[in-house]
Write a structure and sequence with these properties.
Largest sheet: 8 strands, parallel
Strand content: over 45%
Structural class: mainly beta
Length: 158
């Protein structure tokens, strides 16, 4: 009999997949971002930027840091989205990104977040003139709004 499964060594250690970092610092325009489901990923953009792409992280976490002015538009699927920092005059367009859960730790300045299909928004911290649009079926567990920040629910037509 031939056994098709390889034997595991008893002393072997499986390492987690490495964290993938995409950094855009300065003036950038890139419309070919592609993130597959090969572990957690991080997108950092500082300066002037215009970015878009596809995210297929059904089992992983996507972390986002945005500072400056510009737009980031992402399509696809993501298990967990963690927005660490949005500051300046930037727009994060996630209308075509489906997420199970989202956490936004800080959105300041004139930053804008447009959520798409999202089940749960666990944490949302908005300051200054930040603006967030989220779908009607999303559940918000914990949020903090200060200054002129706005939170708007999108009601879909039947």
């Amino acid at each position: 009999m031939i056994n098709s499964k390889p034997k595991k060594r008893k002393n072997s250690v499986e390492l987690p997949p490495p964290l993938r970092n995409l950094e855009f610092i300065g003036q950038h325009e890139d419309h070919s971002i592609l993130l597959g489901d090969f572990g957690d990923a991080k997108i950092t953009a500082k300066g002037n930027f215009n970015l878009s792409g596809i995210v297929l992280c059904r089992k992983s976490t996507l972390e986002i840091f945005l500072e400056g002015s510009g737009t980031v538009a992402l399509n696809g699927h993501c298990k967990t989205l963690l927005i660490h920092n949005l500051s300046g005059d930037c727009t994060l367009n996630l209308t075509d990104l489906a997420c199970r859960k989202v956490r936004c730790l800080s959105a300041t300045g004139k930053s804008t977040i447009l959520f798409g299909r999202t089940r749960v928004i666990e944490e949302l911290v908005l300051e200054n003139d930040a603006y967030v649009r989220y779908p009607n079926q999303a559940v918000i567990h914990n949020y903090s709004i200060s200054g002129n920040a706005r939170l708007e629910k999108i009601v879909e037509a039947a």
